[in-house]
Amino acid sequence: MKKVYVYKGFERFWHWSQAGLILFLAFTGFEVHGSIHVLGFEHAALFHRVASWMLIGLIIFAIFWHVVTGEWRQYIPTTQKLAEQIRFYAVGMFRGEPHPTKKTGLQKLNPLQRLTYLGFKLVLIPVTVISGIIYMFHKSIDKNDLVVISDIPLESVAFWHTLGAFLLMVFLVVHVYMTTTGRTITSNIEAMVTGYECEEEEEAAEEPVGGVAGAPAAEVAEAAEKKAGEETGEKA
Amino acid sequence: MNRTIIGIILFVVAVLAFIRWFSIEDEYYNLKLEKLKQEYSVTPVPSVDHSKLPALQKVFATPQEVTEACNSCHTERHKEVMNSAHWNWERVTYVEGRGVASAGKKNVLNNFCLGAQSNELACAACHIGFGMSDDHFDFNNARNVDCMVCHDNSEEYLKGASMAGYPDRNVNLTKVAQSVGHPNRINCGSCHFYSGGGNNVKHGDLEMAQLSCDRNLDVHMASNGMNMSCVACHTAENHQIKGKLYSVSSVNYNRATCEDCHTTTPHFDDLLNRHNAKVACQTCHIPVYAKENPTKMTWKWSDAGKLRDGEPYREFNGDSTVEYLSIKGTFHWAKNVQPDYVWFNGTADHYLLGDTIREVPVKMNTLFGSHGDKNSKIVPVKIHTGDQIYDKVYKTLIQPKLFAMEKGDSAYWKDFDWATASEAGMRRVGLPFSGEYDFVETVMTWPINHMVAPKEQSVGCAECHTRHDGRLEKLDGFYLPGRDYNRTLDASGSFLFFAALAGVILHAILRYRADRKRKRELLGIGSESVKREEL
User: Fold this and answer.
1) pLDDT per residue as tens digits for the range B507-524
2) Which residues contact A16 (CB under 8 A, 6 or more apart)?
3) Are strands B437-447 and B362-363 parallel, antiparallel or unpaired?
4) In three state form, how does the secondary structure of B201-214 look?
5) What is the pLDDT of residues B139-182, one digit of tens each?
């Protein structure tokens, strides 16, 4: 197996801090919403506000990074192999077929990911963040010379913000599950941590177990790793 | 790999710590508040000692002589007083839905002792004049202005019971006249604490406990705190006193507000400051009222008139409050009451004598305001309910004659006859009485502005921002985060979330099973060995 450098340093930093912030914002946000009771409304609202500013800052950095590195091109939607990708998740995966697309540094997203992440970046995040900013500055009266947004009722602002939150949570569930559909269960997450993706070699796909996604594959991979570690004497 | 994971965990912890660090509100020294405290802790020394004035070195035979002595130096002040609502008991104002109207104690009914008309002999104990015994009082006679009731600093002055506003016969007028100065709490309190026939009956947030209290009861008036007098906030210019009492007032003008001193941005937290756009200071800073002594919450006049052996009687509750009076009916008292909340823009309407009853319960006063109104804020109120006598034919509330010195003068408190009392009262106010009466439910709303609690006791966020049993549960027409949510969105959002969860779990199970099956086939090993593996 050869290792391919797919995710760059900033990308990984951005991904994980965004993940952490979104989880934290969901946690505090649903407390503000009244769905859960852990921190108490006051703290939840306060932390939600602070974390939201951090996320906004991160997103600004991420946009900058995407523009200057040209990485934004990774998200240009394509229909090429889109059907194959969908078919893979629906059928092929159960038959042990190999991934229809390959991950490289130049092309790290499969067509389905391209579409999903483009929607995530262009619709879901903007809807949630913009409605959140309006929410944050929403006060419907100007007696105190404060920043005021009075023409949009808070009810609809809250609607869009909550809608975004729910969709983000749905995204989270599917996204996290999809990470297990790599070469092994944890290989995709490993790649997002280390930056390196282990690419399947041609003959590896022919091996009985190696090309199979799922729990047994992971066991095999783990065993292999263990063996390798013993051999080199640098077991972690 | 492991090191990276530990790194990520440490990073997340660092982010959370970062959030917490940014969230801590520093205990800054609140300079704004300290400046106010300094300003109000300085007691001005009066420039005149009235006990040294020659005009006051005499024995006054009548209280009017005192007024004349006052006017001999303060030559124009009586004109200011005679231009005030405290004197006139009415104020001509614009009222929404009514136009320009005159409203005040002369024609407004309340939910307690009902109204002053025909009962002046007793009610005038709270008029700043002498000799209002009936409706022939001369509001243009400067001699009848009672300067002493507000300006006595000797605590000697006392209005006589049932004496039409004259002082008690035992009052040493010379001593009182020589002591005059700025009004103290008891000057205002002698009427405003005891209105409605006893301590704290009407307001709930103004009572004799505030003559000497601690910070827990009232941060402004606390003896161990700022020890402020009423007039520290209710300042006056030309005897026009700041502040409105919406049991009789109608206009959003010359009000005494918290913001006058504390500004609209008293908090360090900008989010709290922004609440002030829609939430009055009092809403959070007066969590409960009637903290020391109970206040009347209901008054049922329909129960009045029961006699024992032909004599009126009274019954007490366990806490020595009066539960029943033959002359007044049944009361319900309460202590440490959590206020109700309404939208209020500072304007109000009142039930004026002669108004036709259009809704039940009859609103004795109506506080205007709504979420959509830019001038409206959420304010705490005491809601006082009860029932009153009304004319079944003319559909009007009745002003009965309650008070008289002797029996046989049509007064209900002596004769216990609603028909004659109503007839006498309505004749006095010039309204028809059909002779047919019954009782109708009434409600009166009292804004709560006093008994401000120390900041540690302020209403917490979650007391309103909560889905159930919040303080603002009954207020509608606006979206309150934490209380309100879109049911459809929440239901479909939760459904989507759990559907996605179920979907991936199902997908995972199918994957696992397909994988095992294929593994078995691919390895070409019999099912026995697989079983052994499982064991």
Assistant:
1) 999 988 988 888 888 776
2) A192, B8, B11, B12
3) parallel
4) CCCCCCCHHHHCCC
5) 999 999 999 999 999 999 999 999 999 999 999 999 999 999 99
ipTM: 0.82
Provide the CATH topology of domain A2-232. Fumarate Reductase Cytochrome B subunit (1.20.950)
Provide the residue count of chain A. Answer: 236
Q: Which of A143, A170, A177 sits opposite B277 (nearest CB)?
A: A143
Q: Which residues are B299's β-sheet partners?
A: B331, B386
B490 neighbourhood in chain A, CB within 8 Å: 35, 162
DSSP B98-160: TEEEEESTTTB--SSS--STT-HHHHGGGSSBS---STT--TT-GGGB-SHHHH--SS---BP
Check if A194 contacts B (Cβ < 8 Å).
yes
Other CB atoms within 10 A of residue A186 CB: 16
Residues contacting A149, CB < 8 A, separation 6+: A134, A137, A138, A139, A140
d(CA A203, CA A210): 10
pTM of the model: 0.85
Q: How far is B4 from chain A (nearest CA, A)?
A: 7
B266: number of Cβ within 10 Å: 18
- Return the closest-CA partner of residue B203 out of B294, B120, B104, B113: B294
Place of tokens 């908090």: B267
Quickly tell me which residue has 């067509």 as its tokens.
A111
- The beta-carbon neighbor of A34 closest among B483, B497, B510 is B483
B374-399 tens-digit pLDDT: 889 999 999 999 999 999 999 999 99
Beta-sheet pairing, B295-300 with B377-391: parallel
Residues of A in contact with B462 (CB under 8 A): 40-42
Q: For helices B487-523 and B527-534, give the axis angle rounded to 10 degrees.
A: 120
From the list A166, A177, A208, the residue facing B523 with the nearest CB is: A208
Segments making up each domain of chain B, as ranges: 50-81+113-194, 197-398+433-459, 487-514
Residue A36 contacts B where some CB pair is shorter than 8 Å: no
Q: How far is B226 from chain A (nearest CA, A)?
A: 27
